[in-house]
Amino acid sequence: MSVPVLTGADVEAAVSPMRAVEAVRDAFVAYARGEWAMPPKVYVTNYPAGDFRAMPAIGGGHALLKWVTSFPGNPSRGLPTVTGLVLLSDAETGELRAVLDAATVTALRTGAAAVLAAETLGRSDARTAAVVGAGVNGRAAARTFLARGRDVVLWDVDPSHAAAAAASLGADVAPSRNDALAADLLVTVTPGREALLDDETLEPGQHISLMGADGPGKAEVTNAALARARLFCDDWEQASHGGELAHGVEAGVVSRSDVTELGRVLTGDAEGRRTADEITMFDSTGLAIQDLAIAIAAVEGAAGLDPATLVL
Length: 312
Prior knowledge:
By secondary structure, the protein is of the alpha/beta class. The protein has helices at 8-14, 17-32, 102-121, 136-147, 159-169, 177-181, 223-228, 236-242, 245-251, 262-266, 288-302, and strands spanning 5-6, 42-46, 50-59, 62-70, 84-90, 96-101, 129-132, 153-155, 172-173, 185-188, 207-210, 230-233, 259-261, 280-283.
């Protein structure tokens, strides 16, 4: 049996940002209900250069293994930060069903999770949205905001990156970093080498989706900022050991009782935003169940593509 290999272009053609949000939402719900399973993510580190990650999951009649890298210094070498493969198998027979480009799967689910959290936890009257970090995943978040009918501005430490991303997406560049950080709905997708937000820079009623600090030693906000906000995450075990919350846990600022998993909000088993002035933060570490949802959607969507374009 031939196994389709879906390139990044194939995955993008098969899964729209709107479909990605739906798929990721369903994955969060299935995981919260115990219908999908996800063993712990395994890190193989080579710091400070970067790390390798092995991410398994099972659900929806399929099993997945994602082997993916994160090497933040690669762009300066003309190389992508994220590379790797996703293997999708039949959960009943073990047969390999597809091989997919991991970078595109990652970008789609990162953009979808960032915007899903913003829509779920942000104020209903939120007017402004911004993405800080105009790399592949930052562009995916901005593209998802636009697909959901919301205007968005971008900011990047390299103004040319922000300008190029905005032009390609039909978005605007934020006048300054401070303007971007003050948005009602803020998504940060940076390498996490330095904190962007302190308690004094947070705005009442703001929501922040923290997407960049997805490994040990990374941080986009200070402990003081964590202490001021109402905290949410994708998965407590991952977030408390390798995500944005980890430094807060280590410092004793954050405990398990302070954090709500987004899936429980989506199922109605936990409260989301409680007041208009509350500051909400969502810590995303990236879940294999999200990759599984995107991979399944990609294989389903690829059925409508020209078979001649797929590598067999």
